[in-house]
Amino acid sequence: MPEQTADHRSTINAILDSCRRATLPYQRAHHGDSFGTAFWFNDLVSEDDDSETYVQYLVTAGASTRYDLAEIRLRHELSDTPMSANGLMMLRFQEGWIPLGDSGVSVLPTDVLHALARRKKWAWATDEITDGIAAKPEDISLLGDGPVPAYALGHDVGPDRTQREQAVVIGEVVRHGEGRGFVWSGHVPQGCAGAPVFVARHLADRNFRLVCLGVLLPGEGESGTTHHPVATFDHIRTAVRGLPQRPAVGADVAAAAPTRWWHRRK
User: Fold this and answer.
1) Could you report the per-residue pLDDT of 82-113, keeping only the tens digit for each?
2) HSE-CB for 177 with a 13 A CA cutoff
3) Residues in contact with 257: Cβ distance below 8 Å, sequence separation at least 6, in sequence order
4) Which of 125, 154, 241, 248 could make an SS bond with 37 (beta carbons 3.0 to 4.6 A apart)?
5) Domains observed in the chain
6) Which of 186, 160, 132 is nearest to 3 (CA)?
7) How far is it between the farthest Cα atoms of the chain?
8) pLDDT band at 69 (very low <50, low <70, confident <90, very high)
9) What is this structure's pTM?
10) In angstroms, rounded to a whole number, what is the distance separating the alpha carbons of residues 36 and 27?
11) Could you give phi then psi for residue 119, rounded to 5 degrees?
12) Rounded to whole angstroms, how far apart are CA atoms 58 and 111?
């Protein structure tokens, strides 16, 4: 792992201050063979001086969702009221996720998660990756061709395969494929596929702006030469905005509910 310099520590603190409650660890229920990290994303539809309108999704690596029964692990900080359990079981898990073309990313409209919480008489209190932090084309174009320090906010499996503690993983991203995408360079703990990847855009006077570059995808390649692609938010945002509305389903089924527009006053 790279040494934690002062710049690393400042960026990690900014990530945790803004996004600590944005991630959820999930896994195949009753099996120890599939683990992932998902995160909340608010796609901004419109805004004015007083309010924002957005559509909310859970985002992850699609390859980590291909099973029927999932457990989402909960942390008490994700609700302002007491939770009745440490996890949520979701039936027909794979059916709820909408693949975003060939990006490797899938999204889940969050209506089903809010409905599950309401049934248990609590409500989510989360941070979200918002339009202001999700990378835009100009953010990506300003990243150089050489290695760029990067940070994944994921949930490691841990030695006993049950803890799913949140961790900021330090690595680097480098361009590949004629400059069209990025690959993560560095160790990726098991369970962190699907995690949001952050970079710092440096400004004047040692200031910086935190940017969520995209989604960390499962590794590709032979053992010892594994590369983890990063699906970038410029493509994710475009794909999400092209999604059709979906039919409603039962609240216990992780199938895509109709797109809900949320209104939040500033």
Assistant:
1) 987 889 999 999 999 999 999 999 999 999 99
2) 8
3) 109, 111, 112, 115, 246, 248, 249
4) 154
5) 6-265 (2.40.10.10)
6) 186
7) 53
8) very high
9) 0.88
10) 6
11) -60, -30
12) 10
